[in-house]
Design brief:
The protein has 3 domains: 53 residues, Structural Genomics Hypothetical 15.5 Kd Protein In mrcA-pckA Intergenic Region, Chain A (Roll); 81 residues, Alpha-Beta Plaits (2-Layer Sandwich), CATH 3.30.70.580; 81 residues, 2-Layer Sandwich (Alpha-Beta Plaits), CATH 3.30.70.1560. It has 6 helices and 17 strands. Keywords: Isomerase, RNA-binding. It comes from Lacticaseibacillus jixianensis. InterPro entries: PsdUridine_s_RsuA/RluB/E/F_cat, PsdUridine_synth_cat_dom_sf, PsdUridine_synth_RsuA/RluA, PsdUridine_synth_RsuA/RluB/E/F, PsdUridine_synth_RsuA/RluB_CS, RsuA_PseudoU_synthase, S4_RNA-bd, S4_RNA-bd_sf.
Amino acid sequence: MSNKPTEERLQKAIANAGIASRRHAEELIAAGHVTVNGAVVSAMGVKVTPQDAIEVDGVPLNQEEQKKYFLFYKPRGVISAVTDDKGRRTVMDFFEDVKERIYPVGRLDWDASGLLIMTNDGDFANMLMHPSYKVEKKYVVKVQGIPTRDKLMPLKDGLVVDRKKLAPARFKQISADKAKNTAIIQLTIHQGINHQVKKMFKTIGYPVIKLAREQYGPLTLTGLQPGDYRPLKREELQALEALAQKG
């Protein structure tokens, strides 16, 4: 029987420690924030064991951090990432007073605004992002053109985007501007593939001009301005977990 220590990929070890989701752990590694046994590791696929000394930004992996949960109103023109190799503004620029290593749950496009959850709880983040849990997200979308209900019905039926069949969405047309040939649509989905909302409307022939996420499960942006954030309340965390388990 072998006594060889169990190996796992570095990004998985970071995610399992609750430091970041696996995807954000990969970003941290690529940006040079992670050391293993004193040496910076920036390549993917490196395997580690429990005996390895792993640090993220100089903090040992096994050092417990208090779990933090924030609701953030992301402005337009901000990257939903921990770091950016092009030096662009990221969501982390708004949390300089938070000492814990938080990161965004999922993403909002650079040119989109709205509700984003920030945390350092890996299990909580993975629960919300996993498509099987079906936590709904509500968007307000400004599109070029004024679609009829028949043109919007494929959203409800489930579009095929990037050769993937999407789950049915709900929609409601809020307003239309005939002079500018634009419309405002409210869209509710629970999936989260890259650029999903933009791709959905492009598929039915109505490109997105402006996009904002106004609700995530029971959470809304009431009382916040772009760039503001607040801690999530205990009852809000419980409500999100209940929704995820129900899904």
